[in-house]
C-alpha cells in the first residue's frame, strides 16, 4: 500500500525531526513493501533536514504539491504566473504584509525571525535569500500574520483578482498559502502514483484536506483545533490524538496487517 505522510504536526512535533519511534516503524513498513511518500507545505529544500538520515530513497511532495522529488530528481509541477504574482505583490504592498516566497530552490522573506515558519526556513543554508522582485518562477507564497480585520478582505481580493490561484486560508493562524491553480498535495500524489491512486494518508491541517478526502483511509491529527466536522461522518477518515503514541498505534496496526 502507498502511505502518504504530512510532516509538521503529523509525524514531526518539534519542527526539527521526525520522532524516532515513528521513524523506526516507517522503516519497518518500507521494508515489508509499503511505499512511503512524505507530503509537506515545506519546499523540498526545507524537507531534507527533517528526514531521517538512514531512510531509504523515497518520493517527496513539497510546497503543498507544487514541487516533488523522485529518485533524487526535483521537478516543479507548476509555478504562479507572472500576472498573478504581480497581484499578490500588490496585496503585500497595500497591506504591508509579512511573506515567504519560494521558487524551486531560493526564497524571498519578510517575516520576524521569531516566527515558527521562519525558524524552519532553510536551516541548512542550502539556498540564497533573494529580493521578492528577483523571484521569477514562484511555486508557493505564504502571507503571514495577516491582521484579523483584513483577513477576509485579502482572501476575497485574491480570489476575485487572481482566480487562477489555489488558496488555503488558515484563518486560525492568520496565514494564507498560495500556489498555482489545481495544485495541492493530492494532485502531486496523482502525478507520482497515477490517476485514482490507492493510498492511506496522515495529515493535520487545511492543506491536507484534499489528500485525506481522496484517500482509501485517512487519519487526521487534530492538534490545531481545525474545524473538520465532515470528517466525523466519513467512514474512511478517523480523527486521532496529536501525539506519538496515537501515530505509532496506527502504524503498528498496518505492520500487523502486513504480517498476516
Give an overview of the whole structure.
The protein is of the alpha/beta class and 260 residues long. It folds into 2 domains: 2-76 and 183-259, Rossmann fold, CATH 3.40.50; 82-180, 2-Layer Sandwich (Hypothetical Protein, Haloacid Dehalogenase-like Hydrolase, Chain: A, domain 2), CATH 3.30.1240.10. The protein is 30% helix and 23% strand. It is built from 8 helices and 13 strands. It has an 8-stranded mixed β-sheet. A 5-stranded antiparallel β-sheet has the order 7-6-8-10-9, covered by helices on one side. Strand 1 (2-5), helix 1 and strand 2 (35-39) form a beta-alpha-beta unit. Helix 1 (20-31) packs parallel to helix 8 and helix 3 (82-95) packs antiparallel against helix 5. The longest helix has 16 residues, at 244-259. It is globular and about 55 Å long. The two termini are 14 Å apart. The mean pLDDT is 91. Pfam families: Hydrolase_3. GO terms for molecular function: magnesium ion binding; phosphatase activity. This is HAD family phosphatase.
| Uncertain ranges | none
Oligomer: single chain
CATH architecture type of the largest domain: 3-Layer(aba) Sandwich
CATH fold descriptor of the largest domain? Rossmann fold
For the largest sheet, list the strands in their spatial order.
5-4-3-2-1-11-12-13
Total DSSP E strands:
13
Tell me the name of the CATH homologous superfamily of the largest domain.
HAD superfamily/HAD-like
Amino acid at each position: 500500500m502507498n502511505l502518504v505522510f504530512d510532516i509538521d504536526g503529523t509525524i514531526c512535533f518539534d519542527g526539527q525531526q521526525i520522532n524516532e519511534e515513528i521513524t523506526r516503524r516507517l522503516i519497518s513498513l518500507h521494508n515489508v513493501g509499503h511505499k512511503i511518500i512524505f507530503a509537506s507545505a515545506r519546499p523540498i529544500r526545507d524537507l531534507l533536514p527533517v528526514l531521517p538520515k538512514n531512510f531509504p530513497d523515497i518520493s517527496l511532495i513539497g510546497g503543498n504539491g507544487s514541487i516533488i522529488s523522485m529518485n533524487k530528481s526535483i521537478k516543479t509541477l507548476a509555478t504562479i504566473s507572472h500576472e498573478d504574482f504581480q497581484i499578490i505583490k500588490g496585496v503585500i504592498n497595500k497591506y504591508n504584509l509579512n511573506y515567504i516566497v519560494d521558487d524551486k530552490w531560493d526564497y524571498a522573506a519578510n517575516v520576524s525571525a521569531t516566527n515558527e515558519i521562519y525558524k524552519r526556513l532553510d536551516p541548512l543554508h542550502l539556498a540564497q535569500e533573494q529580493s521578492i522582485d528577483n523571484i521569477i518562477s514562484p511555486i508557493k507564497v505564504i502571507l503571514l500574520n495577516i491582521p484579523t480585520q483584513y483577513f477576509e478582505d485579502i482572501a476575497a481580493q485574491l480570489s476575485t483578482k487572481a482566480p487562477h490561484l489555489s488558496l488555503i486560508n488558515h484563518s486560525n493562524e492568520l496565514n494564507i498559502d498560495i500556489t498555482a491553480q489545481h495544485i495541492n498535495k493530492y494532485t502531486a500524489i496523482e502525478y507520482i502514483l497515477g490517476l485514482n491512486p490507492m493510498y492511506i494518508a496522515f495529515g493535520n491541517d487545511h492543506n491536507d484536506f484534499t489528500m485525506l478526502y481522496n484517500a482509501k483511509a485517512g487519519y487526521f491529527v487534530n492538534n490545531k483545533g481545525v474545524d473538520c466536522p465532515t470528517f466525523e461522518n466519513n467512514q474512511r477518515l478517523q480523527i486521532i490524538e496529536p501525539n506519538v503514541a496515537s501515530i505509532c498505534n496506527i502504524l503498528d496496526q498496518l505492520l500487523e496487517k502486513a504480517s498476516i
